[in-house]
Amino acid sequence: MYKQTLLETRQRISSFVHNTPVLTSHLLDDKSGAKLFFKCENFQKMGAFKMRGATNAIIQLSKEQQERGVVTHSSGNFAQALSLAAKNLGVNAYIVMPDNAPKVKEDAVLGYGGNITKCESNIQAREEAATQIVSEKGATFIHPSNDLNVILGNATAGMELLEAHPDLNCVLTPVGGGGLLAGTALAAHYFGTQCKAIGGEPMLVDDAFRSLQSGKIETNTTGNTIADGLRTHLGDINFPILQQYVDHIIRVEEDEIIKAMRLLWERLKIVVEPSSAVAFAAILKNKAYFKGKKVGVILSGGNVDLDTLRFS
């Protein structure tokens, strides 16, 4: 169903994104008991995998839609990704950001040419501000994770990983809004050989885990996790993909995320954000399951706010 579409997506965006490197570490293999292959999307343009989905979503718009611009609401990586992707394609990007967004993220969006609209820090205010821009500008709303073209773009990271290492037994990604895990699950299904897609999720925001258990989209009452990029919930487009193609989701505690992030910094000598470390933390928590397997890990991004960084 999706294979040809995925191939076309990869070709469509290839000149706008990096084919990021895959790193290995004998020490991390020894610690996990598995053979690990880390796909470094922290080296992607603007520092995260989201550049892939944002680029594909904009390219897929009609010329008339592109002329009217695009809009999203985000305080994180997708705000930056949509701004840079739009700039590369000559399209105006309108970004709704909460008034408590870190200045470093606002500066990044402005640096990529995004037009920022501030709003109160709640989902209703974000949605209302985005809807108003759509009404006034005629811009097309692009959701950070619950958009099929975004999901297909995200899938290209997994496709590249499996092209380099086609015999992987499984691929892990963090899961928040579900856009990366859904795309990776499609890549694993269509381009792997009996390759399972597995998600890692913070215990404090385990809505995706509970959603797969209950068969309906669950939400969280709190979002107090260090993995700030994973505080969102699933949508009606990516959830059915997860239900069909994801094997299972592993939940991890906050101290396990911090420990995993520290190991990645120390041993791979790279900067990854807390959300990126969640997938690796899931492997360390379940060594018996992954023992002896060849395991791909999508390191989703490296946009760390150094002022709030903490290691235990």
Automatic annotation (TrEMBL):
Record keywords: Lyase, Pyridoxal phosphate
Domain Tryptophan synthase beta chain-like PALP: 14-301
One of the GO biological process terms: D-serine biosynthetic process
Entry-linked SUPFAM superfamilies: Tryptophan synthase beta subunit-like PLP-dependent enzymes
Matching InterPro entries: TrpB-like_PALP, TrpB-like_PALP_sf
Molecular-function GO terms, alphabetical: ATP binding; L-serine ammonia-lyase activity; magnesium ion binding; pyridoxal phosphate binding; serine racemase activity; threonine racemase activity
Cofactor(s) in the UniProt record: pyridoxal 5'-phosphate
Keyword check for Lyase: yes
Pfam families: PALP
Family: Belongs to the serine/threonine dehydratase family.
Annotated protein name in UniProt: Pyridoxal-phosphate dependent enzyme
Species of origin: Gelidibacter maritimus
Highest classification ranks of the organism: Bacteria, Pseudomonadati, Bacteroidota, Flavobacteriia, Flavobacteriales
